Amino acid sequence: MANIIEIQDLSVPELAVFARLTEGQLRCRREPEKGVFIAESLKVIRLALQAGCKPQAFLMERKRVEGAARDIIDQCEDIPVYTGDREVLAGLTGYALTRGVLCAMTRPVLPAVESIMPTAKRVAVLEGITDSTNVGAIFRSAAALQVDAVCIMPTCCDPLCRRAIRVSMGTVFQVPWTHIRSDVSVLHDWGFKTAAMALREDAISIEDKELVAEERLALVWGTEGTGLTAATIEACDYVVKIPMAPQVDSLNVAAASAVAFWQLRVKKDTL
User: Fold this and answer.
1) Do 134 and 39 lie in a common domain?
2) Which residues contact 115 (CB under 8 A, 6 or more apart)?
3) Which residue, 53, 76, 106, sits at the end of a domain?
4) How many domains are there within the chain?
5) pLDDT band for position 30 (50/70/90)?
6) In the sheet where 217-221 sits, what is the strand order?
7) 102 and 221 part of one domain
8) What is the structure's pLDDT at 20?
9) Which of 17, 54, 75, 269 has the greatest count of CB atoms below 10 A from its CB?
10) Among candidate residues 198, 234, 214, 188, the one with its CA nearest the CA of residue 122
């Protein structure tokens, strides 16, 4: 039976997860098993549920309860559904719920890197990318363009922060991902060649035939402003750039990732 709860008091502790906890508090770094993330929109929530993520509570406009969210509520019948008018929810969260539904979910246990790499051919490695919009967009491109996995370095934004999940359109639940240490040379243990995406005079083009032909390739992406660290670039097998028109020096990291994922994807006839 659905557990529908009409919001009467915005200050009750049960609603803190939707309004008063920072992203760091949601992640619960000291006790990761207690961490939470927020999924926004019915499409994203459905993808998270299909991936096995466990819901803790819903927050949604009243009209969604008997409308578009009915199937999700029925699927999660024991989970509390906090509801009210659009204005009430905006007063709680501080912003309008443009998609009408939020779901607090338990953070999943990430796969060990050893379980992802043996079958992967193309992976993306993210170092120091702090813009959650870019992280979400990279995941969306990775899902669309046959990237097998994403590796997150310690300096990178959390892929399960609310904005990254939203921009990814839920693909963070479709593309396998996990954390790796700061030294990209660990990827050599699984037979990967590493390609630092960097604007250097000695960089080769993403059209380079030897690069395209690599059986296993990890594309390493750096922060939006300064790019990859010198140590990471030196640890990679290739330094690679996307050829640009003379008047333009670079692309946004999310746009550049889409171009590179497409150009360097494993062709079906080479599998």
Assistant:
1) no
2) none
3) 106
4) 2
5) very low
6) 177-179, 149-152, 122-126, 217-221, 193-197, 238-241, 204-205
7) no
8) 63
9) 17
10) 214
Q: Which domain holds residue 85?
A: 3-106
**In this predicted structure, what is the pLDDT of residue 271?**
43
Same domain, 159 and 253: yes
Dist CA 82 CA 59 (whole Å): 5
* Same domain, yes or no: 165 and 182: yes
Do 95 and 138 share a structural domain?
no
26 in the same domain as 135: no
DSSP tag of 239: E
Average pLDDT (5-27) is 76
Beta bridge partners of 126: 152, 221
Please check whether residues 143 and 20 belong to one and the same domain: no
Domain boundary among 59, 78, 106: 106
- Can you tell me the distance from the alpha carbon of 161 to that of 133, in angstroms, rounded to the nearest whole number? 10
Closest by CA position to 251, among listed 221, 210, 212: 221
pLDDT beyond 80 at 217: yes
Q: Whose CA is closest to 165, among 62, 9, 23, 34?
A: 23
DSSP symbols for 46-68: HHHHHTTPPEEEEEEEHHHHTTT
What sections of the chain are H helices per DSSP?
16-19, 23-27, 42-50, 62-65, 70-75, 86-93, 113-116, 132-144, 162-168, 209-213, 230-235, 253-263
- Give the CATH number for residue 194: 3.40.1280.10
Would you state the structure tokens that stand for residue 192, as one six-digit string? Answer: 């990967």
Q: Are residues 118 and 230 in the same domain?
A: yes
pLDDT in tens, 54-82: 999 998 888 888 889 999 999 998 999 99
CA distance 69 to 138: 28
Tell me the C-alpha distance between 201 and 231, whole Å: 17
